[in-house]
TrEMBL record:
InterPro entries: CB, DNA_brk_join_enz, Integrase-like_cat_sf, Integrase_catalytic, Integrase_recombinase_N, Integrase_SAM-like_N, Tyrosine_recombinase_XerCD. Keywords: DNA integration, DNA recombination, DNA-binding. It holds the Pfam family Phage_int_SAM_3. This is Unannotated protein. It comes from freshwater metagenome. GO terms for molecular function: DNA binding. Residues 165-350 form the Tyr recombinase domain. SUPFAM superfamilies: DNA breaking-rejoining enzymes. The keyword Cell membrane does not apply. The lineage of its organism: unclassified sequences, metagenomes, ecological metagenomes.
Length: 384
């Protein structure tokens, strides 16, 4: 810590030099020597009291703090896919606009202007909300680590998230229309998604030891080519329907009866699917089969809605369905409230029979209340 006199064209200044709590050299300029001496004394007192961090807190730029946040927090607590998404928002939006600003100078009005600029750039409400939520999370770490006192993003109003569209479950007739235009592997994968309700990452992480005659055990998932836990961090058990059992048995024989630790749906190199493999499969094989089948379905993930709807049609207790799908009861009821309403007062349906009829070609692909598709059945007492 020292005070030095610096001569400039417009006069002289007094510079206070010191090292912060992390050993980095800092300085601050004053017009009057008395002010410089007072600040130097404040630095010395703070150092002796162990409070030096409060003097320098928030002087690093947002970009510098993000680098620290990435090392100490993000890589330890976020999934690879989430971190990849966050890095995209940081590189494209947050750091170009705010990265050069000192942390303590990122004020609510600065954030408000940033939010307005996102709107002017025609970024959608959902994307703007995600970007601001990421920035708020980063600044919350800055508060916790005592770099700033208050989170400036908290007081800035976020765009209202668009209401999620109610899922339109695909009836077995539609699922079978998709499957008929696929290879055996892809058709079985669709069966697992639609008739067992797995998320795509969970289906791609299945090994043969996870499957027995009556149940599937979901204990893991695949993300960016790496194995991880399920979305909720909990394992669950799902019953295997008759048609799915047949599909899995055929695929196991076709695969050469692999060992229990082998993946049911291995990638091209025999290991877990890489992220680009899944994206390519979704854009090509899945999309082409959906179009050829005359079905409306944007993402493989949406197939799991068929499983939940079949279970509601069978009048299974919602608590059981929530456990099988890996959702909370609240999420399940909110997502499928329209399905529950449309099925109210109907008789109990046999899901296995619906799938069997669809595979035998008895059910054309048309709309049906509650199941996302209305289908005419050869059995008047069991419309499907």
């Amino acid at each position: 810590m020292s005070v030095s006199r610096v001569v400039r064209r417009d006069g002289h200044r007094y510079l206070v030099w010191w090292k912060d709590e992390r050993g980095r050299t800092r300085n601050k300029t004053f017009r009057r020597k008395a002010d410089a001496d007072a600040f130097d004394s404040k630095i010395k007192l703070a150092k002796s009291a162990g409070d030096l961090a409060e003097i320098t807190a928030g002087r690093e730029t947002l970009a510098e703090f993000v680098s620290e946040w990435r090392t100490l927090y993000a890589r330890q607590n976020l999934t690879p896919k989430t971190l990849l998404d966050y890095e995209r928002y940081l590189a494209n939006d947050i750091l170009p606009a705010l990265g050069h600003i000192q942390l303590r100078k990122v004020t609510p009005i600065v954030v408000q202007r940033f939010a307005a600029a996102l709107g002017d750039a025609n970024r959608g409400a959902s994307v703007r909300r995600k970007i601001l939520s990421l920035l708020q999370g980063i600044m919350e770490r800055a508060v916790e680590w005592q770099r700033i006192r208050l989170n400036p993003v908290k007081v800035v109003k976020k765009p209202t998230a668009p209401r999620s569209l109610m899922p339109v479950p695909i009836a077995p007739s539609g699922i079978e229309a998709i499957r008929r235009n696929m290879s055996m592997r892809d058709a079985v994968l669709v069966s697992v998604l639609a008739y067992a309700g797995l998320r795509p990452g969970e289906a791609l992480a299945l090994t043969w030891s996870d499957i027995d005659k009556r149940t599937l055990r979901i204990t893991k998932s695949i993300s960016l080519g790496e194995q991880k836990g399920t979305k909720t961090g909990k394992s669950r058990v799902v019953p295997v329907r008759q048609a799915l059992a047949v599909d899995l048995n055929k695929w196991k024989l076709k695969s050469g009866s692999p060992a229990g630790d082998q993946l049911v749906f291995p990638g091209h190199d025999g290991g877990p699917w890489k992220d680009h493999e899944y994206r390519n499969w979704r854009r090509r094989q899945f999309h082409d089969a959906v179009v050829a089948g005359g079905v409306t379905c944007r993402r493989p993930y949406e197939l799991r809605h068929s499983y939940a709807s079949l279970r509601f049609a069978e009048q299974v207790n919602p608590v059981v369905i929530a456990a099988e799908t890996g959702d909370t009861l609240e999420t399940l009821l909110r997502t499928y409230v329209h399905v529950i309403a449309e099925l109210a007062g109907s008789s109990v349906w046999d899901g296995d029979q619906l799938i069997s009829d669809a595979r035998s070609g008895h059910i054309p692909v048309t709309w049906k209340p509650g199941m996302g598709q209305k289908v005419a059945s050869s059995k008047a007492e069991n419309p499907a």
